[in-house]
Amino acid sequence: MAPNDSAETTEEAKDLAAGRRKAARYIVPVAVAGVAAATIGLVPALAASGDPDLPDITAQKLIEKIAASETQQLSGTVKIKTDLGLPDFGGLAESFVPKGGAGGGEGSSAAPESKLMELASGSHTLRVAADGPEKTKVSILEDKAEYSLIHNGDEVWAYDSASNEVFHAKDADAGKDSGKESKAPGEDLPQTPKEFADEALKAADDTTSITVGGTAQVAGRDAYQLVIKPKQSGSTIGSIKVAVDAENGTPLKFTLTPSSGGKAAIDVGFTKVDFSKPAASTFEFTVPKGAKVTEADELEKGNGAKGHEKFKEEFKGGEFKGEDFGGPEDFEGLNVIGEGWNAIAKFESPAGSDVKAPKDGDVPPEAQNFLDALGDPVKGDFGSGTVFKTRLVNALMTDDGTVYVGAVTKDALVKAANEGK
Questions:
Q1: CA 336 to CA 345: how far, in whole Å?
Q2: Does 94 share its domain with 240?
Q3: Which 3-state string (H, E, C) describes the chain?
């Protein structure tokens, strides 16, 4: 077993930051169409088969090992297991998003965004493959169907066998020296154990404890366990454990356990993995006979944008105009309260005090049940509002339109609102 070495001093924290910057350059770009939060988990019986006896290593050296990993080629099988404390999505996606996505109009069930919500809860099995940043493939395996997303050079293909529909897009940045990493649809969020680990290490500073917590065997590979914990109280994150391949430094498993305890909220890992070069045919795609093909630019034309505005108007009961929606610049007075794992973002909603909780009948039943399950009414010196909660991220929206959000407890949000009234 490796020692429980601590890497918590100020000087070591600086070294960790340098290691994290280097690590960011070695992300294995396996495209998994999922959300933040979408995750890859291991059934314990498959993941653990005894703790290997490995040479001792410090936390700093293990982080450097992750940073030095140059893994660009792999294939394997993964499972997604996510428990964010959200209600079963069921038909929720269809309730909130018209066919073809939020843009409305005639769309495609094969479009990557159509699969995002499905991976935010429950358990899913996937096959993944990568050969450098511009050749990736992920297939979501279902009982009687399969969904595949393929990125091959400047071509992006997605196929939904259940509906026999194909989505096709051109990656305009592929192969160009644009100064930014090429990304296919669905690749913007963390998708592999390494990407999740990199995101976690970005938060590692003097508010963080980083230690080596022994060894493990994942997908038949010997691994060290890197343990990341907040030093502060009040965070919803209890600990993060990253299993790092002892040979090549590639993170094989990522497990996030909330401070409230219980089973992991996010568990990301391989059940099988092979670091040899995948066959070139893995990334080739031929449109199946009779399949409907939708081009990405088709969804951006016609009635797409118009349908999107109509959807927003209907969902808000006609109270909001199109200009009330937009990017982060539309959220006034954005500032951060606190630091480290207890940081809380505070901003004014674009609609301000005009925000009104939806009434019965304003939204579809599935969506209303979802909102009811998430929201808790709260009161304090700030007034009154509603806390929308998950096992990781909570948000307080006051009745006057101020929003507080962070990976902190409900009490921490109420305290921040009281102090900021």
A1: 5
A2: yes
A3: CCCCCECCCHHHHHHHHHHHHHHHHHCCCCCCCCCCCCCCECCHHHHCCCCCCCCCCCHHHHHHHHHHCCCCEEEEEEEEEECCCCCCCCCHHHHHCCCCCCCCCCCCCCCHHHHCHHHHCEEEEEEEEEECCCEEEEEEECCCCEEEEEEECCEEEEEECCCCEEEEEECCCCCCCCCCCCCCCCCCCCCCHHHHHHHHHHCCCCCEEEEEEEEEEECCEEEEEEEEEECCCCECEEEEEEEEECCCCCEEEEEEEECCCCCCCEEEEEEEEECCCCCHHHHCCCCCCCCEEEEHHHHCCCCHHHHHHHHHHHHCCCCCCHHHCCCHHHCEEEEEECCHHHCEEEEECCCHHHCCCCCCCCCCHHHHHHHHHHEEEEEECCEEEEEECCCCCEEEEECCCEEEEECECHHHHHHHHHHCC
Domain that holds residue 345: 321-419
pLDDT tens track for 39-63: 222 222 223 346 899 999 999 999 9
C-beta separation of 71 from 133 below 8 A: no
Q: What is the pLDDT at residue 94?
A: 45
User: Quick check: is 208 in a domain?
Assistant: yes
Residue 126 has pLDDT above 70, yes or no: yes
Claim to verify: residue 179 and residue 326 sit in the same structural domain: no
| Domain-located, residue 55 | yes
pLDDT at residue 308 in the model = 42
Number of domains in the chain: 2
Between 201 and 79, residue with greater pLDDT: 79
In a domain, 254, yes or no: yes
Q: pLDDT band for 201, please (50, 70, 90 cuts).
A: confident
Better-predicted residue by pLDDT, 379 or 50 = 379
Say yes or no: 258 and 163 in one domain. Answer: yes
